[in-house]
Amino acid sequence: MINSTSNKQIKNLAQLLKKAKARREQRVFVVEGWKMYREVPKDRLVMTYVSESFYGQEEHRSLLQGRDVEVVADRIFHSVSDTVTPQGILCIVRQQEYTLQDILDTAEAPRLMILENLQDPGNLGTIFRTAEGAGITGILMSEDTVDIYNPKVTRSTMGSIYRMPFLYVKDMAAVMDELKRREIRTYAAHLRAKKEYYEQDYRQAYAFLIGNEGRGLTDELTSMADEYIRISMAGQVESLNAAVASAVLMFEAKRQRDHSST
User: Fold this and answer.
1) Tens-digit pLDDT profile for residues 115-169
2) Is 175 helix (H, G, I), strand (E, B) or coil?
3) Pairing state of beta strands 138-142 and 69-72?
4) SS3 annotation, 64-123
């Protein structure tokens, strides 16, 4: 059992939880909680760490049987955990790598989210979770978007990070050109738009563009979109939270798709 914060594995866990550089170098990330552990693809699970009290329960020991597990003293586990009330289990997971071709070739009619400079971990994680529920086939992100492997992001995905293909993009202009070449229609959520989001036809391949929480999309990326769309607000509200706006658009597209198949 690990009893010291000076233990090499504990030090490494702390680095992986706090620093994106460490995660990039080792090509792994850390997830916490029973649900996130249960949904990890077996071929990507590197190591599991459990608190002494968690492992002390027979039902937990039986479920962990046959896995590589390190038991950690409760106070040490609590010190390394990223959550206020640790569930007693966390694990190291191998990162999954995708290419643009992987994402664009996953479906006959790709359904994409393009995210530019999102900074709120909760927003990004919620978008991933909502995207899976709405049938999105891939997510593309500008390089300055918050790290998907940030513990707060992974926790917010509720497991969707394991299943939703994604890619950080260096050259967004080149990606937009490729989408046009493949006849994937792009829609920028923008306050200057004249058309309501529900006036468009999303039954074919499409991509929704969502910008930074405070500034929205840059003029450069906005200018590359095929169409501008808006979500009209009542009262004095100017715009929606990025995750909420994304959900509105994704589920309108799903509604149209489901309706056309009936």
Assistant:
1) 999 999 999 999 999 999 999 999 999 999 999 999 999 999 999 999 999 999 9
2) helix
3) unpaired
4) CCCCCEEEECHHHHHHHCCCCCCCCEEEEEECCCCCHHHHHCCCCCCEEEEECCCCCHHH
In this prediction the pTM is 0.93
CA distances from 11 to 55, 70, 130, 154, 209 (A): 21, 14, 34, 20, 39
- Structure tokens that stand for 48 in this block: 């599991």
Strand pairing class (206-210; 111-115): parallel
Q: What does each C-alpha distance from 81 to 40, 190, 255 come to in angstroms?
A: 18, 39, 40
**Residue 175 identity:** V
Task: Say whether pLDDT at 253 is over 70.
Answer: yes
Backbone angles phi, psi at 64, to 5 degrees: -90, 0
Instruction: Decide if 166 contacts 140 (C-beta within 8 A).
Output: yes
What are the tokens at 25?
Answer: 């170098």
Task: Mention every residue, 6+ apart, whose C-beta is less than 8 A from residue 241.
Answer: 123, 213
Can you give the pLDDT at residue 262?
A: 63
CA separation for the pair 140, 221 (Å, rounded): 13
| End-to-end CA gap in the chain | 57
Please report which helix (H) or strand (E) contains residue 23, including its range: helix 20-26
pLDDT, averaged across the chain? 94
H helices, E strands: number in the chain:
12, 11
